[in-house]
Amino acid sequence: MPFRPAELRTILGRSAPGLFALLFFLLAVPFLDRPGIYNDEALFGNATFAPYTVVYSAQAFKTEMPLMLMTYVGTLKAYLAKFIFLWAAPSTISIRLLPVLLGALTVAIFFLAVRRMLGERAAWLATLLLATDATFIMTTRHDWGPVALQHLLLVGGVAALGRFVQQAELWALAVGFFCFGLGLWDKALFVWSLAALGGATVVTAWPTVRRLITGRHVAVAVLAFGLGAYPLLRYNISRDWATFRGNTVWSTADLPGKVNGLRRALDGSALFGWLAREAEPGERPPANAAQAASVAVSRQLGEPQRGLFLWLFLAMLPVSLFFWRSPNGRVLLFCWIAFFGTWALMLFNRDTGASAHHVVLLWPWPQVIAAVVCSRWGRAGLLLVMVTALSGVAVTNQYYSQLIRYGGGHGWSDAVSGLAQSPALLQAGQVYALDWGMIESLHLLQRGTVKLGYLDQAAIQQAPAAVEGLIRRPDIVFVRYTPGNEFIPGIAEALDGFAASRSAPHSTLATIPDSNGRAIFEVFCYQIPSP
Q1: Is residue 498 within a helix (H) or strand (E), and if so which, with residue range?
Q2: Structural domains present in the chain
Q3: Smallest Cα–Cα separation from 44: which of 35, 53, 31?
Q4: pTM attached to this predicted model
């Protein structure tokens, strides 16, 4: 018996969060083994597998509990990843599965939050835009920022507080502020989102906020927030607030570059040439039907690297002026304040705001803004959103097509997986990296089983006796990038010169190529002269 329209709408409404989560998952999961693991993507492994390399730990039941990876990055992701690694060894796929699942959950909760604020139509439009956004998909699935938990905890906190405002359920207040506390522990830059969110709330909903400020509510909010942020607070209390002293510096440097970073994130092109290589000699043919389909679609569409969302978003600023007095005008103003407030805080902070992993923290406010307006335009608005969403899917596929054909960009080489399994490396007593970009990836992929160290030119110059001891030990090997692939050129050459002066010539043990056949890593040692 066919469904009646009302019944069908009910079924779609109930299943929409799951459907959008599935849509995001299906768009984010293809070719999850490409590109190789980026060093910052693997950073959480320093708190997942011992020996831990973190700035702060606590002792619990005679066990070391890492709490802070860096002065502004916590270890929440590291603890979540332990559950993934219980059944799957660290690999490019298993490492990325967690952020993809977190992204899918974010999309589902986002739909529920927007529906509560704006209704069914706006929720469908906003979530469609978010789930198909190329920048959101690529930054989430690779999560080198990290950003996956930042999005989940922001959206989860807003959704919980929206329920609290509407239904006065105390547990929702606690969950909302607990999410915000966890977000701050995950990465202290979450304070950008919190500050902008607070400002937008005060400006647009002060009478409601004032009504809800009671002793009981304040106590619950403070306790829940403090519980979520406890590891960060404990670290800062013991270290003279190191997080905020070292990472908040006013700067107006590179404002044009930061504006361009926002533009490229909005149109989806920010990661081309960096995450995915551009066209170059040595193109690798597709290895299976799925890869062939991705490449064929890319070529059929003209290999698009820019989506339409930038233009849709830019149109929203003047158009929004006509919607202030609409039923959802206050929500529209809230989103604009949250967007510009967050952007201003990264725009005028030193060394932040130019890269996609910072800019994407402005999401999902742009998608909500577009949905508020387009939901008022009926079928025209729906068509506009659908075309924009399809352009986002096309750009996402273009990333996949380039990764299939040309591989990952500088620092994203899949040769790192081959390096982690190299017998020359696994049989060594200790491995010294002679450049940035290897240590964290190797530590995670090897579960901390290989002893790793780093050697630079300063050590060669300032501690020659110690370095001479290293090159004469038969159980030590060194790893470098091949010429032209270095991040910090000259370290391997300096060590070769030092070793040659001690009559210990360079001896290559293995050369590790990527899947396109390019030699990326060299494993070597020094021949110890006979006595």
Answers
A1: helix 491-501
A2: 16-406 (no CATH), 415-526 (3.40.190)
A3: 53
A4: 0.95
